[in-house]
Design goal:
Elements (H helix, E strand, L loop, with lengths): L2 H25 L14 H10 L5 E5 L3 H7 L3 H8 L23 E5 L5 H15 L5 E6 L6 H12 L4 E7 L2 E2 L2 E2 L21 E5 L3 H16 L5 E6 L17 H8 L3 H9 L2 H24 L23
This protein binds thiamine diphosphate (TPP) and magnesium ion.
Magnesium ion (MG) binds next to β5.
Length: about 325
Amino acid sequence: MSAELLDLYERMAVIRGTEKAAHDLFMAGLVKGTTHLAAGHEAVAVGASAALRPDDYVFATYRGHHHAIARGATPEECLAELMSRDTGVCRGKGGSMHLTKASASMLGSYAIVGAHLPMAAGAAWSAKLRGTGQVAVAFFGDGATNIGAFHEALNLAAVWRLPAVFVCENNLYMEYTPIGTVTAVPNPAADRAPAYGLPAEVIDGNDVLVVRDAVARAAQRARGGGGPTVIEARTYRHYGHSRTDPARYRPEGEVAEWLARDPLLVARKAVGDGAAVDAADRRAQATVRRAVEAARAAPPADPAQALTDVWADGGAAWRT
Ligand SMILES: Cc1ncc(C[n+]2csc(CCOP(=O)(O)OP(=O)(O)O)c2C)c(N)n1
Ligand SMILES: [Mg+2]
C-alpha cells in the first residue's frame, strides 16, 4: 500500500465531505448566494496539487472549492466563507465563487467564464520575468473553451513561452448543455491546442495518480522553459450545475457509468487496503464535522472589513 496514495485519498475525502456539507448548509438556507459543487472532480484538484510547488499559482472557476482546499485553505475557512462569516477565507467578502488565499498561492476563483485564463498567463509572465521557477496553473471548464479569452490566453502564453499549465475539467456539460452539441471538435480543450502549437493530452481526470503525473510532466516542461501545456481531464460532477439543480437533463445510464468511476472509488481500489481507507474516511468525516461546527458558530462578517484586503489597499506583499 502506498502511503502517498492513502494521503491523496484522504484529501479527496475531505473535499467530498466539505462539498456535501456545503450542499446541506445551502439547503438549510445558511449559504449566502450560490454554490457550484465539485464533488466528482476531486482527483483533478488533489492530483494537480500533489505535483505542484507550494508557491505555484493556481486560478480556478466558481466551481473551485476543491482547488482552494487542495491548495491549503481549510474546510472551515471555506464553509465559513460560503456562510459569510468573519472567519471565512476572504472574511465573508467573496462567498462560494471567490475563494482566494494568496498566502497559499491560490490566486482565486472567478465567476466570469474564461476570465482567469489571461490572468494566469499574466501570473506566469511575472514568474518568468522574475526568474522564480514558479508555474501558473489555470483550471477551467469545457464550456470555457468556447470563450474568446481561452484562445487569447493560449495564444499569448504560446508566443511568450510562458510557464503556464492549462487544465480543462471536462465534465461534459456547460450548465445544462452537453458540450458536444455546441463544440466543433470532440475534445474541446486538447483539440484546440495544436492551433497554438501547444502540446496537449486528454487524461482520466478521475484517477488522482494519472492527474498528478500529467501535471508533473507539464510543470517540469514549463519550469524548464518549454512553455505551456494543455491538459484535458475528463471528469463528471455528481451534483447539478449549481444551487438546487437536480440535473435531470443527464441520461441515467451516463450518471451510473460515471458514479461507478467515482475518483474516491478508483483511489480506494488502488490503495487496496480497505481498513486503511475506512480509517481515512473516518478522519476526513471528523475533520469536516469540526469544520461545520466551527463555521456555524463563527460570527457574521464584519462590515468594517468590507474594504480591507482588496486590490486597492492590499499592498504588494502577496505578489512576492
Ligand atoms: C462570460 C460568461 N458567460 C456566461 C456565464 C454563465 N455561466 C456560468 S457557469 C456557465 C457554464 C460553464 O461551463 P463549463 O465551463 O463547462 O464549467 P462547469 O460549470 O461545467 O464547471 C455559464 C455559461 C458566465 N458566468 N460568464
Ligand atoms: Mg463543464
